[in-house]
C-alpha cells in the first residue's frame, strides 16, 4: 500500500491540460506522489495535439496509459488541482486544493501548446519539491 499522496488534476473535459499533468506527474514525480486526472464531462479521446507533443517532447504516449474519465472514476485523493477552467468540484473531498490557472491551448498553435506543457512541467516539479518528505 503506497503512502504517497494522491493528486488529482481536474479539468472540465479531462482531455488536455489535466491529461498532460497526469502524464508529467507520473513521469517526473511518480516517486513522490500518485497522479490521476478527471473531468466533469468527458471526451471520446485525449486531445490529439497534446498526445503528439507529449510524444515529441517526452516520448510519452498518453493514449497507451490514459483515457478521459469522470471525477467519480478516480480514487479518493489528498490534493485536488484544477487547471484553470473555473471548475468547482465540491464533491471531491481533499486535504488541499489549488488552481493552476492555465489557459486551454486546444485549437491553438504548437507554440501555445508547448508553453502550457512547459508551465505544467514546472508546476509538477515545484509540487514534487513541496510534497517530498523532509
TrEMBL record:
InterPro entries to which the protein is assigned, alphabetical: Ptyr_pPase (IPR023485), Ptyr_pPase_sf (IPR036196)
- Identify the residues that the record assigns to the Phosphotyrosine protein phosphatase I domain, covering every copy: 5-130
Instruction: Report whether Phosphoprotein shows up as a keyword of the record.
Output: no
Q: Which SUPFAM superfamilies match?
A: Phosphotyrosine protein phosphatases I (SSF52788)
Matching CDD domains, A to Z?
LMWP_ArsC (cd16345)
Q: Where is the signal peptide?
A: none
What keywords tag this UniProt record?
A: Arsenical resistance
PANTHER family named in the record: ARSENATE REDUCTASE
Q: What is this protein called?
A: Arsenate reductase
Biological source species: Acetivibrio straminisolvens JCM 21531
Amino acid at each position: 500500500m503506497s503512502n504517497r499522496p494522491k493528486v488529482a488534476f481536474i479539468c472540465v473535459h479531462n482531455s488536455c491540460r489535466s491529461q498532460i499533468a497526469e502524464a508529467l506527474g507520473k513521469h517526473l514525480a511518480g516517486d513522490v506522489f500518485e497522479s490521476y486526472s478527471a473531468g466533469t464531462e468527458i471526451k471520446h479521446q485525449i486531445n490529439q495535439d497534446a498526445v503528439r507533443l507529449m510524444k515529441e517532447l517526452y516520448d510519452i504516449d498518453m493514449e497507451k496509459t490514459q483515457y478521459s474519465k469522470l471525477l467519480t472514476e478516480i480514487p479518493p485523493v489528498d490534493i485536488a488541482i484544477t487547471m484553470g477552467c473555473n471548475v468547482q468540484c465540491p464533491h471531491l473531498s481533499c486535504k488541499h486544493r489549488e488552481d493552476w490557472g492555465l489557459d486551454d491551448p486546444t485549437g491553438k498553435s504548437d507554440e501555445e501548446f508547448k508553453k502550457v506543457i512547459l508551465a505544467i512541467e514546472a508546476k509538477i516539479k515545484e509540487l514534487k519539491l513541496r510534497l517530498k518528505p523532509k
